[in-house]
Amino acid sequence: MKTKLLIFGITGDLSTRKLLPALRAIVKTGDFDDVSIIGVSRREVDVAELLQRSLGSTDLLDRISIVTMNVADVQDYQRLKEQLALGDDEQLVVYLSVPPMAATQIVDFMGEAGINTPNVKILFEKPFGVDLVSAQDIITRTARYYTEDQLYRIDHYLAKEMAQDIVAFRGRNALFSHIWNNNFIQSIEIIASETIGIEGRAQFYEQTGALRDVVQGHLMQLLALTLMDIPHEFDWQELPELRFKALELLRPVDPAAAIRAQYEGYQEEVENPGSQTETFVSLELQSTQPRWLDVPIRLIAGKALHEKTTEVRIHLKKLHEAQSNCIVFRIQPDEGIHIELFVKKPGYAREFETRTLGFNFPEDEKLPDAYEQVIVDAIHSRKSLFTGSNEVLRSWQLLGAVQHAWDMETGPILRYKKGSDITSIIDGAA
Ligand code: BG6
After folding, report:
1. Whose CA is nearest to atom 8 of ligand 1?
2. Which domains does the chain have, with CATH numbers?
3. I need a surface site. Which of 175, 202, 308, 311 has the fewest CB within 10 A?
4. pLDDT digits (tens, 9 = 90+) for 178-208
5. Whose CA is nearest to atom 6 of ligand 1?
6. Chain Cα centroid distance, residue 226
7. Which residue has a Cα nearest atom 2 of ligand 1?
8. Upstream peptide bond of 333 is cis (omega within 30 degrees of 0)
9. pTM
């Protein structure tokens, strides 16, 4: 089926940094000759200049056309519909690379104009609301014109190669599927540590904070992939439902064990003395699923920390104190799976030391970027990398009590120095 890919926000930051490079990579495979790209812009766009800025070349020039319109004017959508002239043998994939408020309005206007036939799909970027109520509202609004099948909510962490590998590793390796329960697993930690700060996104981050920005979507999804049941006859299309079931069985997060903190210098950066917005979060969770009973789970996310790493760490139970093993899914960088093991220290002495048994992709094997994967999967109507509305609502529900407790707090927020390590921040909160 021919595909028209309509990108709202084609001249924006996400499009130039991620989407256009992803599209170039997809087109290069030679498998997508029937995909044409239509950018939406308020003004005329010099496509060659846009491509130079994004790709450093004019690749894709013959694929891209531009529609100029005012996205805030409902009248312009009739004209858009006519210009698209979608045939029965074509599908329209709409990528909303615009802020959330604009995205919801565009969806309304497209629906009103009748650009919602079953061969239309819509890709959304997070955040999907700011809490349970607003997420429910967005879901209800979009459901007026589009079925859940037509909606593709992107969480780019789900599309990272190693996140998908959690499923392969757990489901296809007897060595690990046997031990994936509370008989063998002591605790689980999921950590997203970034060295960068908020990178000039002051307005966005002030309204968001680490809980909404990274924990509600990215970390909850990695957790769901870690905990969910994987049936023997596994079909990737079932993934959203399997993840949802794992989220459903989590207990709502207890605010008493939640830690939030902010890096020093943040308030000056956002020009808001007294800002309570967190740039670091640590939460504890528990699952009520029998095989995860009494396995503590910790989610940690923070900016301006000492290292850039995203990891799922599975700590195994010890038979005695001198033992210790940890299985690490290294989501990024250096994507791989490692097991921290004791070995005999080579040499004449009879001593032990820890080494790593590991799997990494060879350096010359280029892993597809998450945005390539989401575009390809949306074209092929594959849903495993996208978040279902039930998953979105459940993860907001789990965080509701913490959001409420933090909204009520008036005292100054805990601060940490830029470049701190996670342990020192958590110890500082004790
Ligand atoms: C985004 C957040 O969703 O993910 C950013 O809005 C964060 O604040 C980014 O920096 C991290 O993504 P990645 O792929 O660099 O780990």
Report:
1. 213
2. 2-125 (3.40.50.720), 161-368+382-429 (3.30.360.10)
3. 175
4. 999 999 999 999 999 999 999 989 999 999 9
5. 213
6. 15
7. 213
8. yes
9. 0.95
